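Here is one chain, start to finish.
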Amino acid sequence: MSLWVLAGFVLGILGSELFNSLILGWVCFGLGLFLLLLKRGQKIALFVLFLGAGMLLTFFRLERLYLPDYGSENSYIVRSTRLVQEGDDYFAWQGKVLEPKNLAGAVVLIYSDQYRPGVYSLVGPLYPPVQYRNPGQGWHYKRRLYAGEIGVLNRPQIRSFQELPLSLIEKARSSYRNNIAANIANADSAALALALTTGDRSLLQGELKSSVYMTGVGHVMAMSGLHVGILLGLSLTLMRRLGLSRVFSGLAGFACIIIFVIFAGPSPSLVRAVLMSAWGIAALIWGREKQGMQALQWTGFFMLLYNPLWLFDYAFVFSFAATFVCLATRGRLDKLLAFLPELIRRTGSITIIIQLVALPLTICLFGSSSLWSPLANIVIIPLMPVLTGFSLLAGLIPGALGIIISLPAMYLLGGVAEFLSLLNQFPLPIEFGGLALTLTAVISGGLLLHLSGLAVRKTAYLTVAGLLVTVLIYTFMAYGVTTVWFLDVGQGDSILIRSRGQWVLVDCGDYFAGEKAVLPTLRFLGVDKLKALILTHPHADHVGGMEPVLANIPVEQVLSSFMSESVAATVITQEAKVLADLEVFSHNLNVSNLNDASLLVSLGGNKLLLTGDIEEEGERLYWHRIVPHQVLKVPHHGSNTSSSPEFLVKVQPQAAVISCGLGNRFGLPGKVTLENLAQVRSQVYRTDLSGFVRIDFWPWGTFSIITFLGR
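Its structure:
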C-alpha cells in the first residue's frame, strides 16, 4: 500500500485527538476527494483524503467514550472478567459494568478483600484510571480510558454477590492456571510459566515481579508476535513431521493461533501478530514470500480503520515499532557481531536495535530503563521456544504425568528467576527526563528514518536540525518563560517552579504522594537539582513527601516556617529572596493554628501568590504583604475558613488554582469559597477535576494555563 495513505491516516488520528474538530476533518476529506477528481498529485490527494478520514473516524470514537462521575459514591453492578493480581491481603480484578446503564460495557479495576468469579453489587467512589494525573502520566491515562477502562474502585462495599457458571473459555483458563500451579512446585517458576504463555501476571509477586520489570524483560510476557511465532513454528513443525501438505499445515497452524487468541484474550499487539501471520501463511501457500513490510503496513491500516484509538495503546506502538525494526534492519548489525554464535548474534543484533529505538519511549512511559536489558533479552529470548513449550505442557496436562513433564519448566524457569534477581540486585538504571529525554527521542527518530531507507547524509541533516530546534525551544522555555506546575498529589499541596533555568519546589504532598507523584514528575521533567525546597508549614499533606524527594534529588537549601529534627532547614523569620523574582515571607508570630503560620511565596512581584494553608487570621497577619497578583494559589485547599472576600478583592486574581483531592472527606473546596472567587471573576482551576495545572508566564506579560485534562 502507499505510505502516503498510512501516514495521512495516522496524522489524521493524532490531529483529531489534538484539535477534536469535526469541521476540519470534513474539510480535509472533501479537499482530498476534490484533488482525486482532478487526477493531479495522486499521492498528495490520498494523503489529504486519509488525513480527513482519520480525523473523522477518531472524532466519532472520542464522542462515544464513557463519561464517569469520579469521586462521588455510586452503586455499580459488575461482572468479573479476570484476576489481575493476587496479593497477601488483597485481590485486584477487572470487571465489566452492567449498571448504571450509561457505563454499561466499561471496564473497572477493583481492589477487594475477596474474589470469586460472578456478579457483584458494589458501592463506592470511582477514581480515575491513574492515581496521580501529572506530567508523564498522559499516555497511561489515555491508553486505559480509550480502551474502555474507566477507573478504579478501591475496596468498595460489597452489597451482594451472585456466583455464575463459568463459560467454556473461563473453565479452560481456570483449569490451565490450576494445572500450572499444581504441576510446578516452585512458586516463581509457576508465575513465570503462566505469564509467559497467557500474559496472566497475577501470580507474580515481590522480588520476582520487580526483577521482571527492572531488567527490561517484561515485554516477553505481553502476548505478541514472539508468542504467535513460537506457537506457529511449533505447529508447522509438528504438521510437516506428520507428512501433511504445506497448505494443510499452514491452515492448521493458523487455526491453532486463533484458538490461542480466544484463550489468551485479544490485545492490539496480539491481533497485529495474528493478522501478519495470516498474511505470511497466505504468502507461503501461494509462494509469494518476503512480503513482510507490505503486511505490516496493511495490518496497521486495517487495525486503525477498525479502531483509531489503538494508536494510543503503547503495546500497539511497541509491537509495530519492533516489527518494523526487525524487517528494516535485515541483519545489518549482524556483521558487527560476527564473532558471536549465529543464534546469539541474530537475537543480539535485533535486541540492541530495538532497545535503541524504544529507549526514549520506555523511559518516558515507565520512568527508567536498565543497562541490563539487552543482556537479559539476549539470554531469555533464545530460550523462549523451550520455556514456552514446556510451560504449555505444564498447563495442559494434569496429574502425575503433568508433574513429571513440568520438571524441565520448573528448573529452567527457576534459573531464569534467579538470573533476573541477580541482575536486579545491581539494577544499573537509566533515568533521565526533560531535555535529555527529548534529545534521545530525536536521535531515536533519526535512527528509525535511516532504518526506513533514508540515506545516511539526509538522516544526519534531519537529526542535527531536530536537535538544534529542540535545544532552541527548550532554552527559550527554560530561561525566557517562567513556568509553574501545580501537581496532583491528592489532598495536599506541591508546586514546582522553573524560573531562569532554576527549579524550586514548594511543599511536596504526603509521603506516598512524594514517592509516587512528586518524585516521578521531577524525573520526567528533568529536574536534576533543586535551588530550594520551601516547606510552608508542618502538616503531613505539605511536608510528608520531603523524605523521598531529599533522598533522590540534590537540594541547595531547605526553607521552612518551623524547626525540624529530620532535615537541616533555614527558618524564615521575615523574608528571603530565593531567586531574583521569587520571595518568601513570614510574619514570625506565634499562632495557635499552624495553618496560619504558613509562609507566603510571591513570584515575579505580581505573577503568582502561594499561600499555604492560611485561614482568615493568617490573611490579616499578612495584610501588608498582600498586593494584586495574576494567579492565586487558593489557601487551605479551598476551605470556607479561608479566601475571605476582602482578601480576594485585595489580591484581584485573574485565575485561581485549588489543590485538593478527588472526593476528599473534608468536602473541599467549600461552596462559600467558590462563590467568593466568582464574585471577583476569577477563573478557577482544580487539581481534583483537572489533574495538574500548568501556568506559563510569558516575557510579554501575559500568561496561559493548560491542565492534564485540558480544562
